[in-house]
Design brief:
With 213 residues, this protein is α/β, with parallel strands linked by helices. It is built from 9 helices and 8 strands. The strands form 2 sheets. Strands 5-4-1-6-7-8 form a 6-stranded parallel sheet, with helices on both faces. Helix 1 crosses helix 2. It is globular, with a radius of gyration of 17 Å.
């Protein structure tokens, strides 16, 4: 029996809120002459279940190409300036790896940035696959990203066990639609949320996986 543990990235594995905010504010300043937003305002917007981020961040109905270009050029260097793993995450990943759990990352961030940040933090080697939103037709809450992972690991429902850990309702919906267990991570961008299980800390997450897997 395989145990497959899939992680969201931002707000679950790593605290990237400051760098995301700094790059968004760079776009606001350079592209739209807007005042900066606070880190909390950016995090709240990202985690809102229904929202138009282009409208919230830049006052436009659509995410315009020039705004995307400004953001990605700035974020490539910015994304590794302040990012850090959440307390307990490196130890959790090492323990899961030691006990034979297969791990992957399913993030709505672009794969380029996901790999860059995880490599910078020396966490990338724990994951068989790192899949970002640019590698699927439809990002979370659509289950396509998760299903790609499960197919890669030759997951067999009823025999193997698979988990999706994330700090957002989209992660939990994707898990449900993929037919796997969702665990809401309460230590990251959101302190509370609904899933099949709730883990207030990485240590609690490990206990859930060990007891229920």
């Amino acid at each position: 029996m395989k145990s497959i543990v899939l992680f969201d990235m931002d707000g679950t594995l790593i605290d990237s809120a400051l760098d995301i905010t700094l790059s968004i504010n760079h776009v606001r300043s350079e592209g739209y002459a807007l005042e900066p937003l606070s880190v909390q305002a950016v995090v709240d917007a990202i985690n809102a279940p229904v929202r138009n981020l282009a409208e919230i961040f830049y006052g436009t109905s659509l995410y315009e190409a020039h705004a995307r270009d400004i953001f990605e050029e700035h974020y490539y260097d910015q994304c590794i300036q302040n990012v850090k793993p959440y307390s307990g995450i490196p130890a959790l990943l090492e323990t899961l790896h030691h006990h034979g759990h297969v791990m992957g990352v399913a993030t709505n961030a672009p794969t380029l940035f996901a790999k860059r940040m995880l490599e910078h933090l020396n966490l990338d080697s724990y994951f068989r696959l790192i899949i970002g939103a640019d590698e699927v037709d439809t990002p979370k809450p659509h289950p396509q990203m998760l299903i790609r992972h499960l197919e890669h690991y030759d997951f067999h429902s009823g025999t193997d066990c698979a988990w999706m850990i994330g700090d957002n309702s989209k992660d939990m919906e994707a898990a449900s639609r993929a037919g796997i267990i969702g665990i809401f991570a309460g230590w990251g961008f959101s302190a509370e949320g609904d899933g099949d299980y709730f883990a207030p800390s990485p240590e609690a997450l490990y206990d859930i996986i060990c007891l229920k897997g």
